[in-house]
Amino acid sequence: KEGTHVLFVIAGEVKYWHGIHTALEMRGTPATATIQKEQYLCEQVLFLNWQHQGVLLARMPCEFATMEGTAFHQTVRRFPLILALCKKFTRAYVNELMASTEELTDLPLGTQAMRELIKKVDEFMFGPQSGPQSIQTLSRRGHGLWTTSKLPVGLHRAAPAATLL
Questions:
Q1: pLDDT per residue over 149-164, tens digit each?
Q2: Among 10, 68, 73, which Cα is nearest to 40's?
Q3: How many helices (H) and strands (E) does the chain have?
Q4: What single DSSP character describes residue 77?
Q5: Strands 153-158 and 62-68
Q6: Given this model, what pLDDT does residue 154 score?
């Protein structure tokens, strides 16, 4: 199934099965990951035409915030400096995926890998001595979509045993 939204878990937890695409296949197979409050998945839709790589299942009442990838793209295009930053980040992100020997999943990159990508892009855009504060400063100065526009974010609830991906 085509991926269209980043999912942010607001309350509850969900289980993710990589490489499984039907409820019948999940029986007796341990979940690949548990996604809990304040975690997210499917960030890939922000950078790629993405096909889901597994199934997400709510086993308790859950709340999600979602961000549509195409709405994110349309918003970013209105801010040339942020667009350039996002394009550079997308190239670095895709290079990271291509260099990895891991299978593609709907799970986010690890924290350390994400920090390194942000550092690389920050240094490229603002110079080697800039540090990660450069991106934050850019946003505070009003050059970023974070201070001047609202991204469309939806709030959704899932009942137990709801299949989400």
A1: 444 445 555 555 444 5
A2: 10
A3: 6, 10
A4: T
A5: antiparallel
A6: 53
Provide the strand spans (E) within the chain: 2-3, 5-11, 13-18, 33-36, 40-41, 50-51, 54-58, 62-68, 153-158, 162-163
Largest pairwise CA distance in the chain: 53
The C-alpha atoms of residue 105 and residue 77 are separated, in whole angstroms, by 27
158 by Cβ neighbours in 10 Å (0-12 / 13-18 / 19+) ranks as buried
| Residue 40 pLDDT | 92
CB 40 within 8 A of CB 114: no
8 Å CB contact between 6 and 42: yes
Q: From its phi and psi, is residue 19 left (phi > 0), alpha (psi between -120 and 50) or beta? A: left
Q: Rounded to whole angstroms, how far apart are CA atoms 160 and 109?
A: 27
Strand order in the sheet with 33-36: 33-36, 13-18, 54-58, 162-163
How distant, in Å, are the alpha carbons of 84, 105, 106, 140 from that of 42? 22, 8, 5, 27
6, exposed or middle or buried, with CB in 10 Å at 0-12, 13-18, 19+?
Answer: buried
DSSP-assigned beta bridge partners for residue 16? 33, 56
